[in-house]
Each structure stands twice: as C-alpha cells, then as structure tokens.
Design a protein that fits this description.
By secondary structure, the chain is mostly helical. The chain has helices spanning 2-32, 38-57, 110-157, 169-174, 176-186, 192-201; strands at 74-79, 82-88. Strand 1 (74-79) and strand 2 (82-88) form a beta hairpin. The chain is elongated, with a radius of gyration of 25 Å. The two termini are 27 Å apart. 30% of the residues are buried.
Length: 203
C-alpha cells in the first residue's frame, strides 16, 4: 500500500545516506592523517555530497518524500484500503538538523578534514535516531495491514453467525468492536471451528 511504500523508500534512502557518510569520514580521515592530500580528496568529497543530496531528493514515492523537508513535520496518507495514517518526517538535507555537513563543506586542509570527521560523527548519530523512527513507522504500518487482513478473514469465517461479514478491509476495522462484544455475550452461538479461529486473534 502507499504508506508502506513511502516508508520503505525513505528507509532505503536513509540507509544509503549512512553509507555515503561513512565514505566521507574515510576520505576526510585520510586527509587528516596525511595519507591523502586535500587537493586529491576535494573532488571525490564534493561528489559524495552531491550523491547524498540526490539520494535524499529521490527518496519519495508517489509524490511524498519523508526525507527532504518538503512534507513538513508530518504527512497523512492512506494505508491501502484501511484508514489514513500520519507519518513523521526526517529532514536529511545537507545542513539540516540531521546531516550537519553543508553543501560546500571542504576537506582541502587537515584542519577542515578534522572538522568534517567530527561533523560526520554527529550526523551519523542523528541519522541513527532518524532510522529508528522510520523503522518503527514501517513496522507499525505492516502490523496494521496484517491486522486488517487477518480480521477480514476471521469475520468472513463467521458468516454463519449473526455477524454480517464485512465487504472491505475498512468494514473489518469498523466491526472489530462488534466482534469483541459478540465473543463476550454470544460466544456459544458461533460454530466451534469458527470460534477457535476468532478467539485466537485476541490471545
């Protein structure tokens, strides 16, 4: 569904950002210890910054990007046929709250390179927290979709009882409370096989 695809795209892009930051740290560290000159490293480092910007810019799905700051603090999208969900965003743009390196960051001198290493370390720590947030949202969406699917299947099995089966996943969600009430007051009216399936959902 759309919400899952949006979070999956964001998660993949954020992981790529982490890889690029690691490459930047290695390059800056080489300048800092003198094994590579600043002149030699400047071009490749600028290229890594450009790649990072491109990854963040292309992290969207169906017009929604959770990583470039374009969606504000959060965005509400539909979760397939289920109810809409609100997703928090993480701005991974250069010079932003997560990635502290700017677009014009340089490693042309050992002093600059040392500063870059510290900035990359801070950015990686920030990125780790952002990844945790994105991963949590992805897991919640998957759990929500799985619940709706299972509930719809279970209610379909109870068609022989006085609970009308839903016509969609949205209907299944709306009937969840009815199922719980029915189990509490009329559990004996459901055929034994179906009752075991329904009860297993609430264990």
């Amino acid at each position: 569904d759309k919400a899952a695809s949006i979070t999956d795209a964001a998660l993949s892009a954020a992981q790529s950002v982490g890889d690029l930051l690691g490459q930047m740290k290695t390059l800056a560290g080489a300048v800092g210890d003198g094994s590579t000159s600043g002149a030699e490293a400047e071009g490749p480092f600028a290229g890594l910054l450009q790649q990072l910007s491109a990854v963040v810019s292309n992290a969207g799905f169906n017009g929604v990007n959770l990583l470039d700051g374009s969606a504000g603090a959060s965005v509400t999208v539909g979760a397939g046929s289920a109810a809409a969900v609100t997703l928090a965003t993480e701005n991974l743009s250069l010079g932003g709250p997560v990635i502290t390196l700017g677009a014009e960051t340089s490693v042309s001198t050992q002093t600059q390179a040392a500063n870059v290493v510290r900035s990359v370390d801070a950015s990686l720590a920030n990125l780790s927290a952002a990844l945790d947030q994105i991963s949590a949202q992805s897991n919640q969406i998957q759990a929500h979709s799985g619940f709706v699917s299972r509930l719809s299947d279970v209610l379909a099995l109870s068609a022989g009882s006085d609970i009308a089966p839903p016509t969609s996943a949205d209907g299944a969600m709306l009937m969840a409370l009815q199922v719980q009430q029915q189990l509490a007051t009329q559990g004996g009216s459901i055929a034994n096989a179906n009752a075991q399936v329904v009860l297993s959902l609430f264990k």
